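A reminder before we start the practical. When you read a complex entry, don't treat the lines as separate problems. The point of joint prediction is that each chain is placed relative to the others, so the output describes one connected object in space. Small molecules and nucleic acid strands, if listed, are placed in the same frame. In the example below there are two entries. Take a minute to note the order of the lines before looking further.
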Amino acid sequence: MSARATTRPGGRSARVQQSVHQAVRDLEAEVGRDALTVPLIAARAGVTPSTVYRRWGDLRELLSDVAVERLRPDTAPADHGGLRADLEAWAAQFAEEMSSTAGRTYIRDALLGDPGQGNAVRCSDYAVEQLKAIGVRAAGRGEAVPDVETLLDVLVAPLMYRILFRPSDLSTVYTDHLVAAALGRGPATPQTKS
Amino acid sequence: MSARATTRPGGRSARVQQSVHQAVRDLEAEVGRDALTVPLIAARAGVTPSTVYRRWGDLRELLSDVAVERLRPDTAPADHGGLRADLEAWAAQFAEEMSSTAGRTYIRDALLGDPGQGNAVRCSDYAVEQLKAIGVRAAGRGEAVPDVETLLDVLVAPLMYRILFRPSDLSTVYTDHLVAAALGRGPATPQTKS
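Here is the predicted structure of the whole assembly.
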């Protein structure tokens, strides 16, 4: 879920998106996000400001798109040989990345510049795709797999709720507990968090 | 969680807050939120714009404060004679109010104008207070009560996650299922949503 190059097949539209996204990432690192403006980004990307406004509406929507790209997982979830181990590793990594300063900023950007909720749904779909990949692998081993909506409710939702609404200890004690609950073996919340 | 008059004991500071919040609510109804500006709000509230900027920083932070006030529950949770019934009624009402157009707007405002997360925590605390009140009542009847952190994870978090990230059917089929899961009687997610 780190920054990744956006490489898409041809066309001017794809090239504009790539150069504008890259300009946002570069300028954010160079001048900080509070100094970002559409004219500054457009100049760096080699397009006109009106190109940016036509395509993204405003800076906030552009930042939302860039944030969602950054939240996109780089790789398939690691294979640790079993469903529980795979879910524990995935949940620990998800918690760590999403609760980092950068992760929180991207989540807020993704939600905030997104009145139609399309980018929020994309964030959720990234988690779904990863959890499905883990599930397919586990089913191939003959393991029983909770459906993905249950995993969203039991594993992903508490992490996102606590990141957004309630400062909490999201250590592996907590994420392992959530995985245990998802696998039907740990209904009670441990008392070590928040 | 509907609009409520903010009545607090004396002081100029409390009066300024009350008149500025009221001006936001009135103007939002009259001219729509996209037309709100700090000078417009200040003029209606009978204060100077600099008073608003000094106290709230900017429009977004003011809207965040107003949103949190609107998300504050008006009343104690209704007493339906048992823990399950109380939680089912509370969850159904929470889902209905938070997923309404107004509820979604207030949640977004509360989260997004709030870099320090204080208002998000207040939203979460409102839920905690209501769930604790239900729990105290149930304990008084001799019922076993899940701890409030479990109720946040199992009941509140999935509702907020789906409202923010994933359009879903939040009907009582779903909220009753979450309550059953919280009470340890329904681990699987029903297949009727999203």
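Discuss with your neighbour: Confidence is low (pLDDT under 50) at residues 1-8, 186-194 of chain A. What might explain this?
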